Amino acid sequence: MADTTSNAPLGESRAAALLYNPAVRGFVYQLVTVILVVGFVWWVTDNTITNLQNAGIASGFGFLDSRAGFDIAQTPVAYNNDMTYGRALVIGIINTVIVSAAGIVTATIIGFIVGIGRLSSNWLIARLSEVYVEIFRNIPPLLVIFFFYTGVLALLPSARDSIALPLDIYLNNRGLAFPTPIFGPGSWLMGAALVAAIVAVVALAVWSKRRQMATGQQFPTIRVSIAILILLPLIAYFVSGMPVTFDIPVKGRFNLAGGAVIGPEFMSLYLALSLYTAAFMAEIIRGGILGVAKGQTEAAGALGLHPRKVTRLVVVPQAMRIIIPPMTSEYLSLTKNSSLAVAIGYADIVAVGKTVLNQTGQAVEVVTIWMIIYLTLSILTSIFMNWFNAKMALVER
Amino acid sequence: MRKTILSAAIGAVVLGLGAQGAAAATLDDVKSKGTLTCGVSTGLQGFSAPDNEGNWSGLDVEYCRAIAAAIFGDPDKVNFVALTATDRFPALQSGEIDVLSRNTTWTLSRDTSLGLDFRTVNYYDGQGFMVPKDLGVSSAKELSGAAVCVQSGTTTELNLADYFSANGMDYNPVVYEQLEDVNNAFNQGRCDVYTTDQSGLYAIRLTLTDPDNYVILPEIISKEPLGPAWRQGDDQWGDVVSWVHYAMLNAEEFGITSENIDEMAESSDNPGIKRLLGTETDSKLGADLGLDEKWAYNVIKLVGNYGEVFDKTVGTGSPLKIDRGLNALWTDGGLQYGPPIR
């Protein structure tokens, strides 16, 4: 430093040194950027508030505590029109989370099946999977939703001519109606049995793993676990004197009364989001599997492993490291695409928010709430997937 | 749907970025633009619906034309913006449109906290129910347990909730944002009942596959005074919009129509008619409004008086064939009353 500036006068050299110091420059640029961004946000916010006041529009989030006055069809938690706008928005949030979570699970399962299917040596399976991917990947998600809503579910018969399925389940253009259990006295025993079953399954898993480590002998853990999970509550059901009765849907004047109904809005949104996103996931999974060196499969085969086990124990775990990061993006876009619900009247956060916006006129506030909610959901998904990715990552020793 | 989010967001941004001018002097803006930007519904027969060639017609549309006629002497200087129920208020608040003429109910909260102003009612309506005939329902009191189709974000949605809870009935709301979606859902049997303003029910019934299979129930469960809205605080603009309506009412009361107006303007000695048509010497009623003295003449000549417009769009001269009912002039026992023009 001293050498390069030795010819210049002392004061100037210090300033010049400071000016050319990368660390200082970096700091200055960042400081300027932060000041500009904060200034811009402050200016926009201030302007918005001033203009709202000038236009005589009430602002602030106080409206969340006022009575909503409108009804919502799909209410996962108790809601009626005497509750507040805030409560209505919570219903919307829960509905968004339900359809996104259900969609993510289903899409992942279908995506795995189709992705592996595309690599199948069976010509028909591979081609079918390819057709599936190409169809859904090339259609906008909104059209897929409309296809299910107006093209498939609306063609079902009316409530009076419902299609009767086994177990008192009915299908009509108002949705899928099914009996709901009513738990009578003594049914706590079943809950207790279920908890006991879960504990037993966990213990079994730990024991069988330990035994395999020690002796190399395998135990059919999964089959036994399923049996325990079903049998224990079932035994409790009979022991406690069959306390569960069912609320069965019966034909009323207008609709099927009693039981519970999954509306066609939810079903079409859920199916569309799952099938649409699964097409993208299938490609990610195919890419991930192809990313695992072929030698791994061959080596596993040479050890005498069954091809199914090769996939499950050797290929998929390695592919997961490639698959997880892009899957996170798909989960995020599925969640965001759920906002298309508004087109078919599923009460998600956007649909409910728009109703609230329109009843109160609080456009700025409602848009802010939407942004915060989607941001929160996305960040939570990201955090979880990053944690999962770190857990799955190759542990280098 | 995307558009709505966008316009709500744009509304927010426009408010944010300082559309200060939007709060006042709409009349000057409109004059300097050379066209009136008028918000209408996306398609409700009789109120505002585009035909196959994209020409808008209906009662709300005629009011846009009447305002343009009053300002420019030309009813075609209107730019129609089709708005959903959710879009309409942000569009007006943000200055995207100059006036909202879109079967909008005048309520206290909209008049106060939304930053809007209402003054005139160009259609007195009330909410009703429509059901398929084969359900055998004859009264709204029998609707407990029904699935009800309704447009979201409307006063209708709120009245529906109030009515059913007041009568101790429950229902299954089926809610869409777009009117077309509500119509489709009802047509396809997704719901048993359609509820909206009665005028709307008559209009929608015409669009169903088999209109004769549907019946409109007798109950009217609410007051729905429909009229134009503008941004709060722009009194001059509010005066223009409301006096266009009053001029049309006064014209009907005087018996002036678009047909006989020239004759009346020439021959009539009635000072009231002369003031209305701007033929009185030294009159400055138009100038006080910020308009030409011929403003009302242009409205009536080019668009028609209230009765003519009503008849042509929703009344007996239209497919809807709605009775004048409450919308008759006060002299005929109705509620339409134009304050004196003097």
TrEMBL record, chain A:
Subcellular location: Cell inner membrane; Cell membrane
Short name of one Pfam family: BPD_transp_1
Family matches, as InterPro entries: AA_ABC_transptr_permease_3TM, ArtM/GltK/GlnP/TcyL/YhdX-like, MetI-like, MetI-like_sf
Mode of membrane association: Multi-pass membrane protein
Molecular function terms from GO: transmembrane transporter activity
Main localization category: membrane
Keywords assigned by UniProt, alphabetized: Amino-acid transport, Cell membrane, Membrane, Transmembrane, Transmembrane helix, Transport
Ranges of residues in domain ABC transmembrane type-1: 93-385
Any Gene Ontology biological process: amino acid transport
Family: Belongs to the binding-protein-dependent transport system permease family. HisMQ subfamily.
Name used for this protein in its record: Putative glutamine ABC transporter permease protein GlnM
Source organism (scientific name): Martelella mediterranea DSM 17316
UniProtKB/TrEMBL annotation, chain B:
Database matches in Pfam families: SBP_bac_3
Top-rank taxon: Bacteria
Keywords recorded for this protein, A-Z: Signal, Transport
Chain ranges of the Solute-binding protein family 3/N-terminal domain: 35-264
Secretion signal, residue range per the UniProt entry: 1-24
SMART domains with a match to the protein in the record: PBPb (SM00062)
One GO BP: amino acid transport
Alphabetical list of PANTHER family matching this protein: AMINO ACID ABC TRANSPORTER PERMEASE, AMINO-ACID ABC TRANSPORTER-BINDING PROTEIN YHDW-RELATED
Family: Belongs to the bacterial solute-binding protein 3 family.
Name of the protein in question: General L-amino acid-binding periplasmic protein AapJ
Source organism of this protein record: Martelella mediterranea DSM 17316
Lineage: Bacteria, Pseudomonadati, Pseudomonadota, Alphaproteobacteria, Hyphomicrobiales
Gene name of the encoded protein: aapJ_2
